[in-house]
Task: inverse folding
């Protein structure tokens, strides 16, 4: 009995300076490589990860926006110093 060894046929989904994302339709696995990190994820896990990362990005932007406005508000307020002498 011989077992056929079919290597994955990766389809490039995205690439950037920090890594890439490939997909194998035969095994249904997304291959995510980011710098020294390599993950093999089932498609639903990959979708959940991308949703979580998108939420994190939005929350980070909201926080940065709020922090910038708070800093500007404090910066624009001139301190009130009352001389007592």
Result:
């Amino acid at each position: 009995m011989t077992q056929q060894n079919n290597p994955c046929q990766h389809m490039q989904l995205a690439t950037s300076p920090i890594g890439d994302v490939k997909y194998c339709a035969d095994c249904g696995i997304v291959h995510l490589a980011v710098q020294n990190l390599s993950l093999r994820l089932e498609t639903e896990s990959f979708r959940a990860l991308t949703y979580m990362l998108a939420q994190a990005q939005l929350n980070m932007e909201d926080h940065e926006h709020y922090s910038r406005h708070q800093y500007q508000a404090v910066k624009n307020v001139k301190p009130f110093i009352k001389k007592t002498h």
Remarks:
- The two ends are 101 Å apart (CA to CA).
- The chain has a mean pLDDT of 84.
